[in-house]
Amino acid sequence: MTETLTGACGCGAVTFAIVAPPIGATYCHCTRCQRRSGTAASPQIMLAPDSFRVLSGQDSLAAWRPPDGFEKWFCRDCGSQLFSCRPGDAHPMSVRFGALDQDPGIRPTLRQFVTDAAPWEPIPDDGLPRYPERRPG
Hints:
Elements: E1 5-8, E2 15-18, E3 24-28, H1 31-37, E4 42-46, E5 52-56, E6 61-64, E7 71-75, E8 81-85, E9 92-96, E10 111-112
Parallel strand pairs: 3-10
Antiparallel strand pairs: 1-2, 2-5, 3-4, 4-9, 6-7, 7-8, 8-9
């Protein structure tokens, strides 16, 4: 990646930039991601620390903080799901592919929480490693 990646919510209230190359990408099939996104899996890029910047709309951001998982940040105006953080950490760990303005130049390399996979959409036979729960490490 030679350029800054940018992204936004659906209504444009929240815009952001990623100033370092993503360090990975995954598909998450957990029930929480299914309910949050309305899809069978959530594709997301993983970020290096301190590489994420909110450019506009800080006051439009809100978070759902489940008791046993990552904080899920979204636009309170339009509901777009944008990124996740470890509880109490101001640095996003992952950004939803769908919130990006351009191709991040990276593709998911694994599928996690496949024991929760939606029965109505079989996981494709794409050769990616599959983990029953969170990927190791």
